[in-house]
Design a protein that fits this description.
- This protein is α+β, with helices and mostly antiparallel strands.
- It has one domain (about 10-175): Jelly Rolls (Sandwich), CATH 2.60.120.
- It is built from two helices and twelve strands.
- The strands form two sheets. A six-stranded antiparallel sheet has the order 1-10-7-12-5-4.
- The mean pLDDT is about 90.
Amino acid sequence: MKILNFNTKGILKKFKEHENVKKKLLDYFEKCDEGSYIRQENGELLSKISKLDWNSSRDFNREWVIFLKPYLMEHFNECANYLNYNSVEIKTIWFQQYLKDEIHQWHIHGENYTGVYYLEFDKNNAKTEILDHNKNKHIVDAEEGDIVIFPSFLIHQSPKLINSNKKSIISFNIEFTNIKLAPHPNVI
C-alpha cells in the first residue's frame, strides 16, 4: 500500500453580517430549550454541550434559520467561488452553546464541507482544533464573527472550555457542487 498525501484547503473569513445578526440569534437561543448532549465512554467524559438544537438540524423552518440563511448563503457563495465551485447547499445547520468545562471531542461530519460560525466567542475561549493527515494538530485562529469552512472528513474538536465565558457557535454541513471548468485565479 502506498499512502498518497494531498493538501486540502479551508477558509477562515469574517462574516460581514455578524454585528447585525448576533443579538437576534442569541435571543432565539436563549428561548430555545431543545436539549443538551453528553457522551461518555468507560467513565470518561468525551463530549458535553449545554444547549443545542442538533436534533432539528435538517429543519430549515426554524425561525433563526429562516432569518440567518440568506446572509449565510451570500457568504457561502463567495467561499464556493474561491474553492472553484459554482453552487452550494446547506444540508444541516444547528447551534451549540458551551459552558465552563464542556467539550466536543474529536469527530468528523458528513457532506463535502463543514464549518463553524463563532457567534459568541471570547478571545480566551477554546478554539477549534483540526488534525491533518499526519496527525498534526492545527488550531484555527478564529475570533468572534469568523466563519471557518473545511473538508468534512478532517478530524476536529472543540477542546474543553476552561474559562467561564459562554461559547455559542452555529455549525453546518454544506455541499459545494458544480465544479467550475476554469479554476479561480487563487486556486493552484
